[in-house]
Predict the 3D structure of the following.
Amino acid sequence: MITRRPKLFISLIVSLALIAALVLWLGRSKPVEVIVRNAETGLVQDTVANTRAGTIEACRRAGISPSIGGQIAKLPVKEGDAVKAGQVLMELWNEDQTAQYALAQSEEKSARAQARQACVVAEVAKREAERQRQLQKTGLSSEEVVDKTDGDARAKQAACDAANASVEVSQARLSVVEAALDRTRLTAPFAGTVAEVNGEVGEFVTPSPVGIPTPPAVDLMDTSCLYVSAPMDEVDAPEIRVGMPALISMDSIPDRKFDGRVRRVAPYVLETEKQARTVDVEVDFLCPADCANMMPGYSADIEVILRSQESTLRIPTEALLEGNKVMLFGSDGVLHERGVETGLSNWEWTEVKSGLAEGDEVVVSVEREGVEDGADAVRDTDSGD
């Protein structure tokens, strides 16, 4: 019994040590899984973006209506039709005006015929007066005959002039009737696409009363030229200039960005949103082919490129912590906080002027719990990145 007690005591101590080691092993902190990216060389652009969704607009768009009221007699176009400049879009009942136009044409034609007749007679009388003057020189005609033929020639020339004046009056009357007839026809002021038609054959349309806007009879837009209009924060607007390059993105085409150029910066601040006053900025698509499958009304966002830096060291902007710090993933599997000097930046990339070297791994999942200086970490292999 005396010899067994030391062995039991030693066994007890070993068991306690193993239990303590097990407790320590089970209680150790689990390494945090992090997503990392390499610092790399590439393009960084300093950009400003719109505060609310912008809209694709047509360069030319017109809501047009007849200048007079009347009953729709013809409606040769429908929504979605492509039309040429000058093409009739809507015609009101105008049979009375058509009859007046036909009458004016006939009167103008008659006046021209009468003018030709009077002028032919005047030409004959003029030649007769000239012949009598030649005969008078040879004594074969009297002065009385010469005076008579000369007066007759002048009278007939006056009749020719009066007939020509009547032609001008008839032409003016024809123009008046033609203008009245044109007022019953709604024509396209430019080539484009019919976006909306308000009315049917047989319905009556009336012009908008002064100060009371009404829906247009036809909404016409030129979809061959499109641009994006978007609100920019008043803080960012002073740096934006006409001609600056820009990038256009759309929710409907999420995997592509389109090149653009600033075409207009509004000279005033909108106060619709009191807490976020904005300035409207318009951006053209640089390549017309880009607009082939787009329609006015699509939502779009713009990024105006203020400055660019080629072939510079950059990291994802999401890796940047407050105070211009990043979390490095060390070769020892430990996270190390490091301060960096930054340059140009946008929502995607930030330029690093000092503090990092190309190839350094920085943590981009900085919002995860446990990401802190000195923490053990492992790469997140399930992130897919």
